Every structure is written in structure tokens, then in C-alpha cells.
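forwarding from the other thread:

> can someone predict this with coenzyme A?

sure thing
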Amino acid sequence: MSFVLVEKADRIAWVTLNRPEKLNALNNEVLKGLDLAFADLEQDAEVGVVVVTGTGEKAFVAGADISELKSLDTASARVQALRGQAVFQRIESMPKPVIAAVNGFALGGGCELALACHIRIASENAKFGLPEVSLGIIPGYGGTQRLPRLVGKGVALDMILSAEMTAAADALRMGLVSRVVALADLKATAEKLAKTILSRGPLALRSALAAVNEGIEMPQDQGLQYEAALFGLLAASQDMQEGMGAFLEKRQAQFKGL
Ligand code: COA
């Protein structure tokens, strides 16, 4: 059985981390499976939204695999960090929305995986944390960079330096996740959100992701220029004519991504 399952239905791809006996911990085989899955999904024109979740009711991903990490030395640890970072960078750079449906522990690399996704929704039992300093290391798959960008430096340093877990309700309050639902409702909530997003203009979604993901790394005046350039490009699209025409004609838009 593969450690990374991919199911596609109704333009939604469900990527499930599937190593439940180790709480879906990210060993190199899982990382490679994730990378291959996202490389395929990026190219698949039939897929409009990706949802990432974990097998079981206990864990999304309980971190990088500690048994693999323990044997690293200085050179190989750096390479390992770069390997994990590259996989998560691929996810963050996806030109279609990626939703993390966090169904339990999202610790270490699991928290970093969720941070690389564009939207995070969580079940009430979910727990987030970056426990690395309790293991004598620091987060190495992007946590020290993405967490402060998402929740601010002070809250991020609290989580990173204390290594304490954050419950779903607190994660919602601090903006680490945008929705919290009962575990039994998580999949349906993710699906509903994915379907809502799929009803929007595909070119607009792609541009919105680029404007936010790339613009956040720019000084604001450059980000505003970038936003205006993308806004201008969309004005040449059939999708804009369709979206505005449908509004004025009081009907549902039928976008073609053109
Ligand atoms: N790497 C490797 N194995 C892991 C793992 C990880 N990050 N997280 C859990 N596992 C394994 C456990 O070793 C155990 O394996 P075993 O049954 O062969 O002994 C199995 O998954 C179940 O975990 P267990 O610790 O028994 O479950 P629990 O309910 O008592 O505790 C956690 C759950 C999440 C609190 C605990 O597993 C934990 O702290 N995991 C490590 C979290 C972490 O530090 N992640 C960051 C890594 S950089």
C-alpha cells in the first residue's frame, strides 16, 4: 500500500498521507510520494483544487520521521532540510488552490506541510505544534519562515520556542487555520469549500494565488504594481466577460479558463 494516496473526483484531488501506524510521519518515501503526486496534479488539467489530509482520526502528520532524522550529520541534515523545503515549495507554488484538511496532530513537518498549503481547515481534535527544539533541532521544512509570515513573529516564536501544542480553537483565534469543524464534518467541509472555489474563475484563482503568494515577498509598492498587472491581464480574458455578463444577466457564470 502506498504511503501517499491520490483520488480524483469532480475536479478535486484528495491527497491522503497514509502511514497510520506511525501517525503519518514523513519519512523520505512519503516525501517523495508527495512530490510526485503534486508534480502530477500540477499538470492535470482535470484537477482544479487539491485537498491534503491524513489517514485515520488521530493524525494529519506527526512530523518528519524521527528515526530517519536521528542518523543525520551536518551535511546530510542540510540536504534533508532542502529536500523537504523543495517539496513544500512545490505545494505552495501550485497554480491551483491547495486545502489542508487537518484531521489530528499536525506537528513538526506536519505543521509545516499545512503551512505550505494555501488554506487550512481543521477538525476540533486537531493539534498544531513545532516541537523541534524539544528534539534539539529547529523546524527545517519551512516552519521558521512560513509561520511568522502567517501568524506574526511573536506568536510564531511562542510556538517555536515553547514547542507546545496549540489546540484547534486557539489555532483559529490566531489565524493559523481559517475554519474548525467536528472531525465527522471535516471531509464534507473541505469538499464544499473546494466546490465553491471550483465555481470561481480559474484564471482569476491562479492570479489571486500569484498576487498573494508572490506579492507578500515584495515591498508593498511593487506588490501593488504586480496586482495591477495581473488585474490588467484578466481584463483580456473571456472569463471576465463571462463572470460580469452572468452577474448582469442574473445567472450562474460558466467559466472556461480562457
Ligand atoms: N517520527 C517517527 N515515528 C513517529 C513520529 C515521528 N515524528 N510520531 C509518531 N511516531 C510513531 C511512534 O514512534 C509510534 O510508533 P511505535 O508504535 O512503533 O512505537 C507510533 O507513531 C504512534 O505514536 P505514539 O507516540 O505511540 O502515539 P501517542 O498517541 O502516544 O502520541 C504524539 C502521539 C503525536 C504526541 C507523539 O507520537 C509524538 O510526540 N510524536 C512526535 C512528534 C514530533 O516531535 N514531531 C516532530 C518531528 S521533527
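The chain has eleven helices and ten strands. thats all i got for now
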